[in-house]
Amino acid sequence: MDDCLSDPCNNGTCTDTGSNSFQCDCVSGYRGTRCSVDINDCLSDPCGAHGTCTDLPLNAFECACESGFSGTLCEDDVDDCASSPCQNGGVCRDEGQNDYSCRCRTGATGFTGANCTDVRGGWVAVPAVCGD
Ligand SMILES: [Ca+2]
Ligand SMILES: [Ca+2]
User: How far, in Å, from the CA of 64 to the mean position of ligand 1?
Assistant: First the structure.
């Protein structure tokens, strides 16, 4: 009789190989004698150090990225300078995960503070008013 009639291969193609014998040709992503084992696609740690991997059916997985990282494999360090946090002409530099630093403009009317919002020395140069 045809041992493939009962459809024993869950995720594969059955070949009758004789009396009470069959062989399953598994589709990619499954293994086992009846192709019922979903291969864990997270074993190779595809999401890296900044993501958590979830195995999905077939050859698929999903990465949940930790804060500050994005991309399919969480490989992109989010640009923390994108919102232009440095004020008054300060130059922003991305410092990795959820961090940035500002290099503030210095000089007579320089600025300081984390976002270059404080006037250096605590005074503001105002135009002199003449002929009051
Ligand atoms: Ca899988
Ligand atoms: Ca960053």
Answer: 16
